Amino acid sequence: MSESPRRAPLPTGPLTGPRTQLRRALAYAMAGINRLLDALPPLHRLHRRVRAGLEFTALELPVPQAGLDGLRLAFVSDVHAGSFLDAADLDELFGRIAAAAPDLVLFGGDLINSREAELALFAGPLRRLTPPLGMFAVPGNHDHFWGPDVSAWTQFLEDHGVTVLCNRGVRVEHGGASLWLCGVDDLTEGRPDLPAALAGRRAGEPAILLSHHPDFFFEAAAVDVDLTLAGHTHGGQIRIAGRAPIHHSRFGYERGWFAENGCRLYVGRGVGVTVLPWRWDAAPEVPLVTLRAAAVAPAVQRPAAGSRADSGGAPVTMPR
Ligand SMILES: [Fe+2]
Question: Distance (Å, rounded) from C-alpha 299 to C-alpha 251?
Answer without folding.
Answer: 22
